[in-house]
Design brief:
about 400 residues, alpha+beta, conserved putative lor/sdh protein from methanococcus maripaludis s2 fold, 4 helices, 22 strands
């Protein structure tokens, strides 16, 4: 009996353990029903603003003189004197250099002497022509009185004609010698080299000096360069994207490393009618008044040109933009529900920090960080809340590629 009772107890315990195991396995197989609710997405946001926004182009370039030319002799010779140095001011028609002129003085003296001989010869021919004229007149009178023969009259007339021709030759020789004398004087004047130009009478400066006194020069050998720096030309190159925005008359603000913190004003005066195939850029020239003559040719410059400006524009941070379903827009936060809603936008002036919203009318707060994790109706949470329940405004103004100024 005892052995049977023990066996029954053991079987009861085994059955109890098996039942507990069965219940545990059943719990594991039965899925637990839980509430499927996505947690809020932490994001950052900024307020939509009403500001002045400008579309500004930034370019680099080089300064060139308004005009530049090299002073060179028209004749060969030894440079006897050089009367200017680098940086010296130069007036119109100012004497720059003198060549050795002994040979040209001798040519002038020779031409003058030949002219005097020609003038003396013309006097001689004039006297001979007068004598021949009187002989013809006398022969004609004698012929009327039958005193002389027809042959003698013809001889006198032929001599008169010959003397007339000789006189014309003498006159031509005088004109020839006068021209040779003037040419010799001109060549002599070429030994005194002057700086001459046609446009304007304002002073210019010596930019470079190429030779020294005593050098033997061939014709057209540069001696010095003359620059007009009272007004300069800034040359920049614009790409295709900005080419259509540039207009003649637009104001340009110029800065250079030589004068940090200082801005010079200029105006666009010329735009090349072509874009170079090699660089895909077009040349644009800016007129730079330089009354203080601080700017110099060859300086590297940075130019800012304002293409357009919109006052009281609705702007949002550029980093708030996101593309969904092929449309560009932003997520607007509903401050009551703390949910985000995607709003497609039509944009206007844009730069690296701020973008103008043209349509639709926009206000409130836009998501600037975390929007890639959002869908329409997503719950959001804003770190850095103030005590009034509003998120911290983290907006900053950046003028690279444009400028946004917040209204007070």
């Amino acid at each position: 009996m005892k052995r049977a009772f023990v066996l029954l107890v053991i079987l009861a315990l085994i059955g109890l353990v098996g039942w507990q195991v069965y219940l545990r396995l059943g719990e594991l197989r039965t899925p637990t029903v839980r509430e499927n609710k996505a947690p809020p997405v932490p994001v950052e946001a900024e307020r939509v603003r009403k500001n002045t926004v400008r579309d500004i182009g930034f370019f680099t370039g080089t300064i060139y003189p308004f005009s530049q030319f090299a002073v060179a002799p028209k004749i060969a010779g030894r440079l006897e004197k050089l009367l200017v140095k680098i940086g010296d001011p130069v007036k119109k028609n100012q004497l720059i250099a003198v060549l050795e002129n002994d040979e040209y003085l001798q040519q002038v003296d020779q031409a003058r002497a030949e002219l005097e001989v020609a003038k003396a010869n013309i006097e001689e021919q004039r006297s001979a022509l007068d004598t021949a004229r009187r002989n013809v007149e006398r022969a004609r009178e004698l012929r009327k009185g039958k005193i002389t023969s027809e042959a003698e009259l013809e001889t006198s007339e032929a001599e008169f004609t010959e003397q007339g021709a000789k006189y014309k030759v003498a006159v031509a020789q005088v004109a020839q010698k006068e021209a040779a004398f003037k040419a010799a004087q001109v060549r002599l004047s070429y030994t005194r080299i002057r700086a001459t130009w046609e446009e304007g009478d304002r002073n210019r400066v010596v930019g470079e000096r190429f030779v020294d006194e005593g050098a033997m020069l061939a014709s057209n050998t540069p001696i010095v360069s003359i620059l007009d720096i009272s007004s300069l030309t800034g040359v920049i190159f614009v790409i295709e994207r900005d080419y259509s925005k540039v207009r003649v008359g637009q104001e340009a603000h110029i800065s250079t490393d030589a004068f940090p913190g200082r801005t010079f004003s200029g105006k666009v005066v010329r735009i090349a009618p072509l874009i170079k195939e090699t660089s895909r850029e077009a040349r644009v020239e800016i007129d730079l008044p330089n009354p203080e003559r601080l700017l110099k040719p060859g300086m590297f410059i940075r130019a800012q040109i304002e293409f357009s400006r919109q006052d009281d524009a609705t702007v949002i941070p550029a980093r708030a933009l996101i593309r969904r379903d092929g449309r560009e827009g932003v997520f607007i936060i509903d401050r009551q529900e703390m949910k985000a809603q995607f709003v497609p936008l039509r944009l206007g002036i844009a730069n690296t920090e701020w973008v103008q919203v043209v349509e639709p009318s926009l206000s409130g707060w836009v998501v600037t960080l975390g929007q890639h994790m959002l869908e329409n109706g997503s719950a959001v949470t804003l770190p850095g809340e103030r005590t009034d329940g509003q998120p911290t405004d983290r907006g900053k103004v950046n003028t690279r590629g444009g400028e946004v100024r917040e209204k007070p």
